[in-house]
Amino acid sequence: MQHIKVTVDGTTYHKEVEPRTLLVHFLREDLGRVGTVVGCDTSNCGACTVLVDAVSVKSCSMLAVQADGSEITTIQGVSDGNDWHPVQSAFKECHGLQCGYCTPGMVMSSIDLLNENPNPTEAEIREGLEGNLCRCTGYHNIVKSVQRAAELMEGAKS
Amino acid sequence: MTDVVDTGTALGRPIKRKEDARLLHGQTNWTDNIQLPGTVHMAILRSPFAHAKITHLDVSGALAMPNVVAAFGAAELGDLNSSVPCVWPVTDDMVAPDFPALAKDTVHHVGDCVAVVLATDAVSAVDALEAMSVDYEPLQAVVNMESAISPGSTLVHEDKGTNTCYVYNLGGGYDEKVKEADVVVKRRFINQRLIPAFMEPRSVVAAPMGMSDEITMWTSTQIPHILRLLIALVTGIPENNLRVIAPDVGGGFGGKLQIYREEILVAQLARKLGRPVKWTETRSEDMVATHHGRDQIQDIEIAAKSDGTLVGLKVDLKANMGAYLQIITPGVPLLGMFMYPGIYKMDAYDFQCTGVFTNTTPTDAYRGAGRPESTYAIERIMDELAAELGMEPMELRRKNWIKHEEFPYTTIAGLTYDTGNYELATARALELFDYEGLRTEQKSRRDSGDRVQLGIGISTFTEMCGLAPSRTLGALKYVAGGWEHCTVRVLPTGKVEVITGTSPHGQGHETAWSQIASSILGIPVEDIEVVHSDTGRAPYGMDTYGSRSLAVGGQAIKAASERLVDKARVIAAHQLECSPEDLDYVNGVFQVKGDPEKAQPLGAVAFEAFTAHNLPDGVEPTLSAEATIDPQDFSYPHGTHLAAMEVDTETGKVTLRKYVCVDDVGVQVNPMIVEGQVHGGVAQGIAQALYEGASYDEDGQPQNANLSTYLIPSAPDLPSFITDTTCTPSTTNPLGTKGVGEAGAIASTPAIMNGIVDAIRHLGVNDVLMPATPMTVWKTIQAAKGGK
């Protein structure tokens, strides 16, 4: 077992973990942060995407011990309680989700995408979300959601 | 973000979904999130062989591992090793092999369950699998359907003496009628094997809850009600002691229309151990253990006069059952049986289907279930016939389709299509697509010998939805009915519960059902809670599959809501001292005609019904009403889908340049949700055409059973879609709705493939296998060149 200290959605945890524990399992099983989900075992689907020190990471492709000292934001931490992050609002407004299982990862990847490129083209959005699989929407409304989120975030700045 | 809705007009509006707040905030209740005190986690030892005798199994090594509570093989499980049921014996002599939850002495496909370990945490359970001792004697596997039904083939189930599950025939008379034809076109189409790959892996928790003898089971399923019945029947747990809950479910696409061996094992072991048992699959388990879809060989023959008038159609199917029969495995090809004639008039139709066992994962329903296969066959061969006749493919369709004034129309397959307007949907699609412009471009590219050729793919499809009239299901030997139930309750606080028997897993029923109830009750959408997917709170239902939820379940909501207003009217009249006929019901308020100041809102009526201090004689307290609706017939959504396909003739690379679809799904409750369903369905159909295909080697080893190698399209693999709708209301249900869940997936596959073939037909190509990868397309072009 190894000691780690991580801050997740604003709370700092001190925990003993097995070195082989994946970050996503640590979040779900050890911390009960079950908003982040597991969709595959080959790092393809992106459902488990979180922000580690403000950069998107598939939390199944990182060990919990590698996150020692990091600040992690999950879907449960992007807005406070019942507040809405512009990306969350846009996904609702544009019907960018159906079953919602890919949604935590889609939202986190979209936040990262818009941080890097606040005004992406459709092609840039599609490329930027390549690591996140959705089986319900055909991506059409996810692309629209990210475009709408970009407008909302631009509007919030001005 | 509260959406305040003007009541009474909720029906037909693109209201934002109620579901989204929890889904977007990570507050969702997936089954794998459930963690009860004392839970033991199950891990499964699965067969690495497609066909083998288990010559030795000793689970005791696992018991010595840390945190392990128990371990079972078939021998240790004994009488609790229930078999997985099939509820659709399609013929009297259908061959149905035993399908025990844990294989007894022989494994029949890679992923077959051999033994289980239960430990206090999931990681320990997986670790302990390594400590089991198991030996196999590999047997010859049979994977190819035609080999399987050849004389002398290896048998999947030795005791059955055959690999033929059943042979089903419909029709007759084609061979006589074909003599009148001038042209006959024959093709063999392959509908490849697909994996549902819903995003939420399956997960099950079962627990003795302690308040009674009840076992509660949470499971990621589309069918909590059917599952409760079947689990009770196969395990012996009394049905009244079993509660099944499908919490938030992350997609299904037919893949969760099932009773799985893992669900049986978890239920039995929770009972045996007297504590909560939990199992969540890995994705790699999912792709060998969740049922697959499609996998048909389709030999199709179409006959026509020289002017294009259709004479008849002959269909000879081989349908891969896989190693076992699951819930409706043998029935899936028969759901397509009625739809091979599509939207066309003809005088003869012969159908035969042979169900075949192989050493592969069992097949069953996958988005469209039989209808994508039939639509693919008819729409592909209509293009082949057009080419043979030298006709414009849309002209050939127009010449043969049922005209809008000819409805209701009974097809050669025996179904009566109630309504439709193929002319209208097609005209709109052609306009949005710029069909003529693209044909002109196609010709100029062809004339100039452009390396990248353009093809136009057409799919003018229909499907049958609204499963289903119970009598029809009975005639087809399906063991259950097709009704749907709803109870509407107005609580003393004025809030409304709509208790439905449908079970959503992404479709937005909580929103859409609220809209239906709101439009009748006059209560705002946000004051209505849709209760679903819990046999404790919503006891009656037949669940969600086959695009049936609105077409059947929606009618129950309408009927129950209307009955509730009828009961409330009697109470309100008593309170307002008038007769029920003297009341208007406006936006949730009963008003005395001519004196609207004298009024009582529905919530006040509910409170009167609750206190029961002053009810009219003969009226029972509480304000609720229920309805169980058995549809009178199917509904028939239709549409015209068009795809512009570019094919690089030197590399085989295919690009979907433009996709237009105009769907007629009848009356829409929420157009935003309809459009989303179309997008997702179209994407899944495109995925079959271009990307997906589960394959096995000759030993029955899966070649791409994980998400690294099974290519689910991601965002850059698809374009945006151009969608529109027409509305020809269905006349088989009072709301005029049809169903939309499967339409896109049914329509889009042939549109894409027709477009690819159209792009390279001049090179001598008349078919391309799916998925149309660059390699496949390139090889097809090379073979055509070599053949010249």
Unreliable parts of chain B: 1-7
CATH class descriptor of the largest domain in chain A: Alpha Beta
Give the strand order of the largest sheet of chain A, numbering strands 1, 2, ... along the chain.
Answer: 2-1-5-3-4
Structural class of chain A: alpha+beta
**Spatial extent as radius of gyration of chain A:** 15 Å
Fraction in beta strands of chain A: 15-25%
Instruction: Please work out how many helical segments of chain A DSSP would assign.
Output: 5
Straight-line N-to-C gap of chain B? 64 Å
**How does the major sheet of chain B shape up?**
7 strands, mixed
For the residues shown, what is the average pLDDT of chain B? Answer: 96
CATH fold-level assignment of the largest domain in chain B: Aldehyde Oxidoreductase, domain 4
- Tertiary shape of chain A: globular
The overall strand count of chain B is: 28
Shape of chain B: globular
User: What is the CA–CA distance across the termini of chain A?
Assistant: 49 Å
CATH architecture of the largest domain in chain B: 2-Layer Sandwich
**Proper CATH architecture of the largest domain in chain A:** Roll
Radius of gyration of chain B: 28 Å
Could you tell me the CATH topology label of the largest domain in chain A.
Answer: Ubiquitin-like (UB roll)
Percentage of residues in helical conformation of chain A: 25-40%
How much strand content do the residues of chain B show?
15-25%
